[in-house]
Amino acid sequence: MKLNRVHHIAVIATDYERSKAFYLDVLGCTLLTEVYRAERDSWMGDLALNGEYLIELFSFPNPPARPSGPEATGLRHLAFEVDSVPDARTELVAKGVRCEELRVDPHTGRDMLFFFDPDGQPLELYAAA
């Protein structure tokens, strides 16, 4: 088997409209398609970043909270590459997004930081090479 690339990442939101606004308005994704699935009482939106399909955003009735501290088994976070982590952090903070302090990756020496979507899902900004 040869994997070509990551096709998409699925994110479940407790409040679909709030999370959709975050991913579109704060992170700059675009909405490709959106459908309400009545049989599951669930919204599903396909989001793109820079024209490339990336995130499948879902809502489901009463999803269990995601344990993230202490860290739980499974997908840890979604990371986005940016040109300047400090500048991106400033933009996020100005938009009211909860951010941790700037860090430096001890293995690469690049800037990085964690921030959180409306449900507390950990996201990361990582400096481009």
From TrEMBL:
Keyword vocabulary terms for this entry: Metal-binding
GO MF annotations in UniProt: metal ion binding
A Pfam family of this chain: Glyoxalase
Matching InterPro entries: Fosfomycin_Res_Enzymes, Glyas_Bleomycin-R_OHBP_Dase, Glyas_Fos-R_dOase_dom, VOC_core, YwkD-like_dom
Residue span(s) of domain VOC: 5-128
PANTHER family named in the record: FOSFOMYCIN RESISTANCE PROTEIN FOSX, LYASE, PUTATIVE-RELATED-RELATED
Protein name, UniProt field: Glyoxylase I family protein
Biological classification of the source: Bacteria, Bacillati, Actinomycetota, Actinomycetes, Micrococcales
